[in-house]
Amino acid sequence: MNTNRLWLVVVPVVVLMVGLPAAAPAAEPPRPLTIVYNTGVAPLKFKDAANEPQGLFPDLWRLWSGKTGRPIQFVEVDTFGASIEMLRTGDADLHAGLFKTPERERFLDYSAPILKIDYHIFTHPSVQPIDRLEDTGGFVVGIVQGGYTDQRVRTVVPDNRIKRFASNAALFRAARNGSIRVFVTPRIALSYYLRENRLANIFGFDTQQPLFTQTYYTATAKGGQDLIAVVDSGLKQIDTKTHQALEDKWITSQAKTIPVEMARQLTDEEQRYLSSTATIRVQNEADWAPFNFNLDGEPQGYAVDFIRLLGEKTGLAVEFVTGYSWDEYLAMIKAGSIDVMANIARTPEREQFLTFTPSFIQMIQMLYTRSDAPEINAIQDLYGKRLAVSRGFFLEETLRAHPQIEVVAVRDTTEAVLAVSTGKADALFDLMPVVNYITEQLQITNLRVGGNMGWAQDEPIPLRLAVRRADTLLASILTKGMALITEEERQALRDRWLTPRGIARRKVFLTPAEKAWLAERDAIRLGVDPTWPPFEQKTPDGAYAGITADYVQRLSQRLNVAMTADTALSWSEVLDKARSREIDVIPCISPTPARREFLIFTRPYLTFQTVIVAHKEAPFINGLDDLREHPVGVVEGYVTHEKIAADYPDIELQTFGSVAEGLDAVRKGQIKAFVDNLASITFTLKRENLEDLKIAATTKYSFDLAMGVRKDWPELVPILEKGLRTIGKEERYQIHDRWINVIFQRTMDWEFLWRVVSVVVAVAGGVLVVILLWNRRLTREITARKEQEERFRALLEAAPDAMVIVNRNGEIIRVNSQTEKLFGYRREELLGQAIEILVPADKRDEHPTQRNRYLSRPAVRSIGEALELTARAKDGTLIPVDISLSPIDTREGALVVASVRDITERKKAEEAIRAQRDFVETVINSIPDAISIIEVATGIIVDANEAFLAELGKPREAVVGKPCYALTHGLEEMCAPPHHECPMLETMRSGRKCTTEHVHTGPGGEKLIMEVATFPIRTEDGTVRQVVHVARDITERKRTEDKIRDSQRQLSQIVNFLPDPTWVVDCDGRVVSWNRAIEKLTGVMAEDIVGKGDFAYALPFYGERRPVLIDLVREWDESYKDKYLTVKKDGANLMAESYHPQLGTDGIYLYATASLLYDTAGAVTGAIESLRDITASKRLQEELLQAKRAADEASQAKSDFLANMSHEIRTPMNAVIGMAHLALKTDLTAKQRDYVSKIQSSANSLLGIINDILDFSKIEAGKLEMETVDFNLETVLENLGNLVVVKAGEKKDLEILFSTGTDVPRFLVGDPLRLGQVLLNLVNNAIKFTETGEIVVATILESRQPGAAVLRFTVSDTGIGITPQQQAKLFQSFSQADTSTTRKYGGTGLGLTISKRLVEMMGGDIRVESEPGKGSRFIFTARFELGAEKAKRQFAPHADLKGLRVLVVDDNATSRNIFKDLLASFSFDVALAASGEEGLSELESAPIGRPYQLVIMDWKMPGLDGIETARRIKHHRSLAAMPAIIMATAYGREEIMRQAEKTGLEGFLIKPVNASVLFDTIIQVFSREAAAGGDADPGAVKAIEGLAHLAGARVLLVEDNVINQQVAQEILEGAGMAVSLAANGRQGVEAVARGDFDVVLMDIQMPVMDGYAATREIRRDPRFRDLPIIAMTAHAMSGDAEKSLTAGMNGHVTKPIDPDRLFAVLVQKIGRRRPVASPPATAPADTSDRPAADLPERLPGFALAVGLRRLQGNRALYRKLIIDFASAYQETPDSIRKALKDGDLQTCHHLVHSLKGAAGNLAAERLQAAAQDLEALFTDAGTPPEDQPLNRALEHLEENLNEVVTAAGLLGPVIAEPAAGDDIADLPADVRHSIAARIREAADIGDIGAMSTIAAELESGSGDYRSLSRRLSALADDFDLDGAIRLADQLDAGRA
């Protein structure tokens, strides 16, 4: 506290003592004194938040009340005047505190002074302190409005320079932000404000003398002297110390102040927050080192230090909260128990409740595993493993996406590290510094770093601070504080905590096993060599000492184990006892191969160089090579002995027992040299004081010392290493310094002394005593001198200048390191040399004389101030120097210390200043403008140039030193304020540059325009000291400017009008015009560039000054051509393109055009350049190129993918379509034929869709071609119905109806597949979006022209409908009505896009009509050519059915009308009913003579459904005739069919119904033949012209797939062709070479050799050059046919096989090659009438009729298959039992499943059922079936199998085949391994097709592979990949 503001000593008062009568009654308690005050003057008096009076005065009065015992009460009033009025009226006793004025003294009595207040002028940091109000000129003064301050200030400062504020706070805020830079206020008020806001004072003021002081008193109304006396008495009792404490309470703050740098950045809200919040609570984890941890109870770590530093930057105190887990801290910050979380990563989950600062450090996370565990380098490697994760760690969120990883929750990272180290977890993922620090502290050595799992996006993890989400102010403050932490401060923290450091650790962390091992040992026996100092030695009392002994002592203490050393052994005895394990550890030994045979070594803990010691007078020795054939000493048995003996056999080695003995032998000349380690040599030389020996050289050997442990104690090695690691660097230095850097104190040889004394004691006893005393004193002096010399040496080295010490002879005896740096000499080169070595050559001769002169009168002297001194460096360079000389007296005589300072830089600066001054003077005098310099304080001209003198016509002496106002204005004094137009005066007052123009009358009376400019010259503190006055005649310039301005105005207007960036330069290259567009482009304003040259206009474009196009058009420079992307010249114009990365956000491309400008005479006046931004077009070009490349790559990839998928999909499709084709050739019931026909139709449609998917790329590329073929529209619609009816049936209340106009032509030419695709897409969409109601597909004739027709197709539904907004997006690619539609109904949205394109390609258009909630109608048209009219089926019933009365009962009106139209076209009499009840009523009311004969009954109707209605009809007894009933339904077909059969209905129809199906069903019901002229059998082979020519043709089918072989063979043989098979391309080539074939059908993808290669191989033989080879493959992509033709094939047929297409190609290729031949006997067209002698009519165990139907009546084939089946499966029960015994349940399941399938195919139905029962017991492959059910099922299976085998024996001999797997061992090993590899590869990638291919190849081979083939086929059928891998393993092992 300032002493100027002291509490005053209270004036003494006289207290009247009034005696009271003893008997008087007790006095009443005194009345409380009322003390009035007005609020708002903090800290003197104010009200707090609780409305209580606070401040210095209230506290003073409370203290007074306590001292006097007088109660008081405060009364608050709003204004000071009100408080005075209360005193006047007597409503208050005392005033709390006020000033004394003469006016107030008239009606108030005052107390003694109670407080003095100092007022000061405070100034902003940008202003020098001011101590007088009179000196505030030029500044506005801030004060609080009203009051004493206002009165005092306005007496001196004009009112226009006073700014008044309503409160102190408002005043101080304005002062802090700089809007007021000078203000007056009481110091106490400012101090209180700063304290309350925790701000540091930044304002300057006069600390010694206040502006004025004001004294406060208390007062009462006039006449209250008695009360004043009481007041003064009480005040006197308050001592000075109490006064000071009271003042400190309100002015001195204990809280930290907010640093100035921080305070400047704070908003008002943030300032208030910091004012009210002094401390923040921060989480501190106790063991997350090196970021947060506790050491000796104190928080430590990087984050702790960072937050403490952040507290210093922000002014916040920090309280660390320790002792909780991470989860608990998160809960605490949510609850507000802590304010800040440190070291926290930002995650979406945490952002819900936390606000984060920027990161304060970024750290790498790594995975750690045990070093003995498999490496983990990817996240998948963690699946199934245990990952230790700290609770609450952000990694928990990431791991939720990987449930395969088992999370081991731990408290913190330390627990995680221990969990992995001890095997409780497999890995941990954490920050590298944390884990490394923990493993270092715990001495954990079994962890290693694995990979980065990609959780860190290969980027570092940013660690942040976080606060509660609502604490945004605190987050902002912390962020601003972090920005104030410098990089140097951050680096210091990183250096301290995050870099390797040698911190000594005292505690050794051992594992429980290591602790237990040590506990079992009482002591560890050490083997030491006591003759090997300083490592090991024995003290006089026999104790073990030395460097190693100090290490051993620390290990013993830290490991808590006794270590005993035997110092009585020699080194050889130590080694012998180590071999016999009589000692446990040799603590100081070098590892060698021989010693490793009986010892295990720790890592070396000491390393020393080996050196050579020789006599001081010995010749130079460079190394051991110089000692060959010389005697050299070593210590016997040491490593040095072993190594030299091995590497230098020609050295004569002599061994000694110790280093001391060896050195003594060198000293005596017995050996040439001695070799040992540097430590031992140094120690012994010092101890023995062997000054006549020297260390001559080093050797190539370094000396490693480790600890050797007996070989049967390997557990001890890691324990010792952990202990050694706790001995840090500092501790190691202490040990080494103790033993190696030892100064030995020499002691007397008392025995020798005694002999001397005994001889001369009588003569020289006294002399000896004197000598001893003198020696003792001399020793002390020497020691003191050494210490003094060391201090002097340190001071010398610390000097910043070169220091040279010279003796009286001028010889240099000492220099410091700065001397070496300055002169370039090494220290040894200067010592002993004459000082003249450093003197320039031309001064050397006279220098000794000068030196001697100085020595004659030595004194401290600087000799460079007035002289130009130089010194000479080693390289001859002369260095300008200042030299200071200081003499010193020493015992060696007078010395001189020379301090030499290099002043090169100073000389350069002085020369530069001098040159600059001369240059400025020359320049100023050469300037034609009149220039003068005027002193501000006096107005005197202090300098002027020649032009100024000439203008005045006066010599320099008449101008310089004269007042400017007298010379320029003719005034007698400085310009007064009325002359404010004077620029010089304005500059003097404002300190700003001023420029004016005025008209001046010249010598001849002419009017001249003068430009006058004044510039301020400031002192260092910013005060304007001088003004520069410049006057220039600008008359001509003004005239020229007017002309140019007019011209340029016109040009600028033209240029500015241009929309492109444009500028113009003149002939000198100066910019004369710069339009608004180029301002916008470059950001350079016209006023900043116009008039500038020197290529300044190139800077915005290129960042350098260089010619641009506007320059090159004037003068072309070829070297700049490459600076542009393109350059083109067109006459006098230049055009160029360029790229400018610095313009725009990502750079821009510009197209520039430059042209020359000419005047009217044709002379070049300049040039113009115009720019155009072509970035968009350039980037569009780049994007188009990139898009084209990407599209080409994508197209190729898609083509490759689709080609492969085409092959994979078409292979099974071939089987589906082919088998359906073959099945249709057999005897089928009408229902079966309907089912199979629909299978074939659906398969064909599916194939078409597949083709459409494959061709979608063609649509995108515009290459889709529409087919033009004849087709029947009815077939298209029938196929559509078959495809959609099942899907529609999944919805309970949805019907699909077809309506086709009678005038619609049926036979058309076009693309039926595309038409069906569009209809299918629209109907599928309708089904998807319609839950109930109906979908109607209507076809009408739109228009008809000759040869063509336009049809309109409408698909209507009663679904959800579509809004107009949604309709706008319907036909866009991958778009649906909205995203919710996709989520609910699925789909890609591509179908309508394809449909639209297809419709357009068919010459039509498509549209939609819809209303939300009412359904949609999709209408499209298509144009078709009319096909040739064919025999149209006539639905003409038999004569007795014409006029058949039919009743249609259906609740759907549309359906009723469709049925009515169809039935009426059959010439039937039709009636309609809308419900079951109405139908019954209609039947009952029918005329007796005209009853209804047929009822078409819908199933699902309200009220009575179709089944119930039919049942009532069937049981109706009163009907004249019972009608036949045909049920029609769109729902639940199987269920309804069963109910219909029970009800006895005659027929069944599935909607949608077409005319053909309806007619055929009616005819069947009435048991009539189909009308004549009906359609041919749909299963028959269609007639193809020339088909007869194929009979007898020989066909080679090259196909690897067995199913495809069978299908193709059946089709071809069914047409009378002879078929041969080949399983791969190689077999095909061989078959062609052997046989005579008419045609080859060649598959493409095959093993061994593909179809392309096989074709090329066949074509190489000239005999087969014309042989037709037709590709028959699933390759159906565009270009595949061309590939086939290129390979030499003649045609291309795609799979699945279309028989018509195949036959057409065959007829084309071979139909005319051979004459028509009769079909071979092996391939009859019909096998139904074949003799049955080879197969009985009945066979036990088989349903022969069923089996024959499956095989198209082929009885011979059936017989063969039955015999083969019995041979293959008769041993199956035994194989099952064997597998059960081996526990192989999987094999059991395979055997039973295979048997079941084969039995079912051959119609062995009872055996199939028995196998199915047994298979059900093996549903759980891991659980064996119960014995009883298993045995019963197996016996039942065996009974039925025996029946089948016995029956097969009736047909032919049954030969048992080996059970599955029994033949494996017989296969050749190389074959087994090859097959196994292929099976394993297929199973690994899930390629079932490949497995089937392998099985087919095995089946086509010899009989040895048949069992293996069947087993593999069964595995493929079951998709059993694991079983396939087991089979491969069995093949490799050669067993089943």
Notable features of this structure?
1936 residues; alpha/beta; extended; disordered N terminus
Brief digest:
The protein is of the alpha/beta class. Helices cover 40% and strands 21% of the residues. The chain starts with 32 loop residues before the first strand and ends with a helix.
Describe this structure in words.
This protein is an alpha/beta fold and 1936 residues long. The protein is 40% helix and 21% strand. It contains 67 helices and 72 strands. The strands form 17 sheets. Strands 32, 33, 34, 35, 36, 37 and 38 form a 7-stranded mixed beta sheet that branches. Strand 35, helix 21 and strand 36 form a beta-alpha-beta unit. Helix 49 runs parallel beside helix 50. The radius of gyration is 58 Å and the shape is extended. It starts with 32 loop residues before the first strand and ends with a helix. The N terminus is likely disordered.
Bulk shape: extended
Mean pLDDT, all residues = 79
Q: What integer value in Å does the Rg equal?
A: 58 Å
Tally of DSSP β-strands: 72
Proportion of β residues? Answer: 15-25%
Uncertain segments = 1-26, 501-505, 742-770, 970-980, 1379-1384, 1568-1585, 1712-1733, 1855-1862
Helix content percent band = 40-55%
Biggest sheet overview? 7 strands, mixed
Q: Could you state the oligomeric state of the chains shown?
A: single chain
In terms of structural class, how would the helical and strand content be classed?
Answer: alpha/beta
Show the helix and strand layout.
Layout: E1 33-38, E2 46-47, E3 53-54, H1 56-68, E4 72-77, H2 80-89, E5 94-95, H3 102-105, E6 108-110, E7 115-123, E8 141-144, H4 147-154, E9 162-165, H5 168-176, E10 182-186, H6 187-196, E11 212-216, E12 219-221, H7 225-236, H8 240-251, H9 260-265, H10 268-276, E13 279-284, E14 287-288, E15 292-295, E16 298-300, H11 302-314, E17 317-322, H12 326-335, E18 340-344, E19 354-356, E20 361-363, E21 365-370, E22 386-390, H13 395-399, E23 406-410, H14 413-421, E24 427-431, H15 432-442, E25 447-449, E26 461-468, H16 472-483, H17 487-497, H18 512-519, E27 523-527, E28 531-532, E29 536-538, E30 544-545, H19 547-559, E31 562-566, H20 571-579, E32 585-589, E33 599-601, E34 606-615, E35 631-635, H21 639-647, E36 652-656, H22 659-667, E37 673-677, H23 678-688, E38 693-710, H24 716-725, H25 729-739, H26 750-798, E39 802-806, E40 812-815, H27 817-823, H28 827-830, H29 841-844, H30 847-856, E41 861-862, E42 870-872, E43 878-890, E44 893-902, H31 904-926, E45 930-935, E46 941-944, H32 946-952, H33 964-968, H34 983-990, ...
Parallel strand pairs: 1-4, 1-5, 8-9, 8-10, 13-17, 22-23, 22-24, 27-31, 35-36, 35-37, 57-59, 63-64, 63-65, 65-66, 66-67, 68-69, 68-70, 70-71, 71-72
Antiparallel strand pairs: 2-3, 6-12, 7-10, 7-11, 14-15, 15-16, 18-26, 19-26, 20-26, 21-24, 21-25, 28-29, 29-30, 32-38, 33-38, 34-37, 34-38, 39-40, 39-44, 41-43, 42-43, 43-44, 45-46, 45-49, 47-48, 48-49, 50-51, 50-55, 52-53, 53-54, 54-55, 56-58, 58-62, 59-60, 60-62, 61-62
